[in-house]
Design a protein that fits this description.
Layout (H helix, E strand, L loop, with lengths): L6 H12 L4 E4 L6 E4 L2 E4 L8 H9 L4 H10 L1 E8 L2 E10 L2 E10 L5 H4 L14 E6 L6 H15 L3 E6 L12 E6 L7 H8 L6 E4 L5 H12 L3 E6 L4 H10 L6 H11 E11 L5 E9 L2 H8 L6 H6 L9 H10 L5 H7 L3 H8 L1
Parallel strand pairs: 7-11, 7-12, 8-9, 8-10, 10-11
Antiparallel strand pairs: 1-2, 1-6, 2-3, 4-5, 5-6, 12-13
Length: about 350
Amino acid sequence: MEDKIDGKIEKLLAAAIEYKASDLHLVVGVSPVLRIDGKLVVVPKEPMLDSKMAMELINSLMNDEQIKQLQQKKEIDFSFSYQDTRFRTNVFYQRGNLEASLRLITKEIRTIKELGLPPILEKFTNHSQGLVIICGPTGHGKSTTLASLIDLINQTRSTHIITIEDPIEYVFKHKKSIISQREIGTDTHSFTRALRSSLREDPDILLVGEMRDLETIEATMTLAETGHLVFTTLHTNSAPQTADRIIDVFPPYQQPQVKSQLANVLLGVVSQRLIPKTAGGRIIACEIMIANNAIKNLIRDGKTHQIENIIQTSAAEGMITLDKVLAELVSKGEITIENALTWALDPKDLKMSIY
């Protein structure tokens, strides 16, 4: 069912969809702004927003309860539907003014092939337990990749899938699996509480929108350890950095145990970027790390800095470094050298491999 949208903002939502934007920003002092293929563009023929105009537009997106939460917390996350698109929305105050950032999410859940993701990712969906982490910067398609993996399971396996999100982004339909989608603030108070409660809800598979803190990371790994397949995201740039972030969030006396636990549950890490294409649009570039015995041993021994060497020498297992993917895209003419260097983990090494 489509949410009721006030006519004042409907024109802006329609423009965001028409121009295939990834985001819409409502900021006091400038006209409404779209992010298109990674670049900010002012919505044509729209006036500059003053404080009153911005407040009217943004309040029209929220119900009374959401406005009350905003007044109490000074910021709020929620999502709504318009036409065939969902908008993940964050409303916040800036220098006393109300502003908002809206992320566009199509209702259609695209397949791994349609997204241009490496086919090896499908293998992660065949496991009965373990932890799969999708990492990368904000706005580079982590949620879209997760949705594709979950929907593949939904189409091929009879399971109970629970998602815990802040807010709900893609809305799944029951297919072979049954799916329970829980939203922070609406259906549960926190990731940690929802994760602990999930043990009594008979799940087979869990999607954890984001591992934000020690408690969420700890609960997520425990679920992966107790017979569940868990998919989640982390704001890190590479597989080694992902392992380090998880381990370092714990106090030193717990870290030896955490290293062993992570090594036992980890199935793989996918680090992805959306890079502007030379012909327009964006293309996905993915580093793939599959947690084989060599990588598990490095994590246990605290030698995560050597993980990249294993990825580089394990192409036969489906692994590949981000910089190698970027170099291949440059050689095919898909992306420019400048954009490749912008997103490379080791720009100097990438430049040498290209030239």
